[in-house]
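Weekly structure sync, notes
Attendees: PL (lead), two postdocs, one rotation student
Agenda item 3: pending single-chain targets
PL asked that the sequence for the first pending target be pasted directly into the notes so everyone works from the same version. It is reproduced below exactly as submitted, 371 residues in total.
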Amino acid sequence: MFQAAAGKTQQVAQLERRVHVANGQLGVGIVGSGMISEFQAKAIGDLDNAVVTGFFDRIPELAASRAEQFGKKSYAVLEELLGDDEVDIVSICTPSGSHLEPSLAAAAAGKHVMVEKPVEVTTERIDQIIEACRENGVTLGAIFPRRFFETSRLLKDAVDSGRFGTLSLGDVAIKWFRDQAYYDQGGWRGTWKLDGGGALMNQGIHGIDLVQWIMGGVETVCGHVATVAHERIEVEDVATATVRYRNGALGVIEGTTAAWPGSKIRIEISGTAGNVVMEDETIVQWEFAEACDEDAEIIEKYGPREGLSGGGAADAKAIDTEGHRRQFEDFCTAIQTGAEPYCVGLDGRAAVSVITSIYRSAREGRVVEVD
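Predicted structure, written out during the meeting:
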């Protein structure tokens, strides 16, 4: 009889939570109180359907400082955050190679999980997170703010609708700059264990995710990596790779943190009936053999213009919160309506798979098939 009563109480609690999720603001508990937690908190603060509940960090002083900044609570231990009934979503903002454990704990606690890029530093660890969320019936999201740029979606739609004819090339160049102090100030940066890689895994993943998503996935890669400009790091600060996409097109990936003063991420998609060049949120070229009425409007609205952020090319803090705001809004709306988010955990796996395949190709000196 006690078990039956306990089960009924749990059912009532679940019903109350569903009502709360559907009608109110979702509570977001942030794990990790470094730089990106500030951007997330600001983005969530601009939403009607979500609110930050508080912060946890393994260094209590960091969590307390971030909590004071935003007027929120500071959790002394992770279990306290996971046991908070006001927390519906746990957002993971720890160093890249330490996303697994808090993600598994959050899923086991019945919390939805949002993870900063990369979801984890190997596909095996990402698979554990995906499986844990599936088993516990919670939603997993992967942070890729650039998928929420209007220009990114326009380009994706143009590819999917066949405007390029036969796709021939899909190139991306992430030529950013980070000085030595950037790597020295954080003990985890530039390490295989916690950073998972260098210019590709930490910085280049933004552009790599975009181009593989837009082109429909990568089949094989052939890569080269090197450390040419920084000291005391285990990973690469420059890398190149040639790729073959699943649709048969070819492409080139370039990534570096040793290109002063840093440039916008440049993506160029080419086909037998069109060519588009995009630099961050700016469309530099938008030409198709068969023009549409919307083309002139797209160039007018998204062509070169002033007032856009630097995109983090030279300064990791030089980004705005709009991409994060749009992604959290979409994630929360999906949870409230029972839909699937625009960018799910499996999407986060794809970019990491490309990058780790490039690393493997460079080590083994051969073409590698992407998982």
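Discussion points:
- Confidence is low (pLDDT under 50) at residues 1-16.
- The chain is about 40% helix and 20% strand.
Action: rotation student to compare against the earlier draft before next sync.
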